[in-house]
Design brief:
Length: about 375
């Protein structure tokens, strides 16, 4: 595992320094044009591919160098993303904060530094579009209480102010992105931030060496260590520590739509990411019986006591064979890492283990199931012995 030490820096100091740098860039002709328009037609790397690369060591973001490209955003928008991440790095904010900040700016401005038709002074400053939401300005659509017009039109300043308020939110690294972003922004559409979490994590990975796959442990960003309640910057964690036994749709079990993770009976099972409870019940066996409080056996059928969670991006995770009734209820919102039940052997089971599934596109059926091993690895929460 690889780690880097973050050193805390005062928000106001860094914001002021970067503000000065950006004001120079915005007022020096050709340099300003390069900065605001992006790469000027250069052949940047594909960010969507880079996002899948390995983790660490985390690299500092170069806001004036060549940056990877993403199909969802233009060069100027990716450069604004780089500024947001760079400010977070310089402030010593854990990488989970970079993901939250990016997702917020993606929702508020589509990563564009927006002027406002109702704030004439903003139209005279460098900008990448014109909005009309009250008197809101910039990447984070901040209102006058956040700073002057010039400050709110300076990407580094607005990012610094966002992080300053973010760090005051209680337990912000463990809570759902939507909840944290809403506490900072006080938006009229608080649920809208969640849909950007996946792409924000990919951008952080591509620009900062897989940083969304890290966990902050003792002041260090540690790669691929999200388990036992530790949450990766991507917002994901392994549901239990343990070794994968039976894999996904193997030759001997082609209809096995998840993986089996061995663990002792009673081991706590955690929500792999923040989500809403879709199911928390006893699954009937092949004979229609709901006797999940006793150990099952092979060919009995059914998931036993189980939970389905719906996550941002339309992902669904499933947790089967719990020993007793789950600790969560239908429609409950649970944060990443919250204990939702305990390992058991109820239902179609030959011994204590967690059967864990991941589904795409809000599809709870076998059609939506994918292999959890590469999915969890890409999010910094690898399942053990999964190679």
């Amino acid at each position: 595992m690889t780690g880097v030490i973050r050193r805390p820096v005062r928000v106001t100091v860094i914001a002021a320094m970067l503000t000065g740098v950006l004001l120079v860039l915005c007022c020096t002709g050709g340099t300003a044009a390069f900065f605001l328009t992006g790469l000027g037609g250069g052949d940047g790397e594909d960010g969507d591919s880079l996002a899948g690369f390995g983790c660490g060591p985390i690299r500092p973001v170069d806001i004036v160098g060549e940056l990877p490209r993403f199909t969802e955003y233009g060069d100027a928008q990716v450069r604004n993303a780089a500024i947001i991440i760079k400010v977070g790095q310089d402030l010593g904010v854990p990488s989970r904060g970079w993901v939250i900040a990016l997702a917020t700016a993606m929702q508020e401005s589509a990563l564009r530094n927006l002027a406002n038709s109702d704030v004439p002074e903003s139209l005279a400053l460098p900008h990448e579009g014109v909005g009309a939401d009250h008197d809101s300005l910039g990447l984070f659509q901040q209102r006058p209480g956040w700073g002057s017009v010039a400050e709110r039109m300076t990407p580094s300043y607005t990012a610094g102010k966002f992080y300053e308020k973010l760090l005051k939110v209680r337990s912000w690294q463990r809570r759902p992105l939507t909840v944290v972003a809403q506490q900072v922004q006080i938006s009229a559409y608080p649920d809208a931030y969640a849909k950007h979490e996946e792409l924000a994590s990919k951008i952080v990975d591509a620009l900062a060496g897989g940083a969304a796959r890290t966990v902050e442990i003792n002041g260090k960003a540690v790669c691929d260590a999200a388990e036992r309640g530790e949450i990766a910057a991507s917002g994901w964690t392994a549901p239990i520590p343990g070794d994968v036994g039976s894999g996904f749709r193997t030759a001997s079990r082609p209809s096995h739509n998840g993986v089996d993770i061995g663990a002792a009976k009673g081991t706590e099972i955690r929500a792999a990411a923040a989500g809403r409870v879709l199911v928390a019940r006893c699954d009937p066996d092949n004979r229609g019986r709901r006797d999940c409080d006793v150990d099952g056996y092979p060919d009995k059928g059914g998931c036993g006591w189980y939970v389905d969670l719906l996550h941002a991006g339309g992902y669904i995770t499933r947790y089967c064979h719990m020993v007793v009734q789950p600790r969560v209820k239908l429609h409950q919102i649970v944060p990443a890492g919250e204990v939702i039940g305990q390992v058991g052997s109820s239902g179609n089971s030959s011994g204590p283990h967690l059967h864990f599934e991941v589904h795409l596109r809000n599809d709870r059926s076998s059609r939506g199931a994918i292999d959890p091993i590469p999915f969890m690895r890409a999010r910094g929460a690898p399942l053990r012995a999964a190679e």
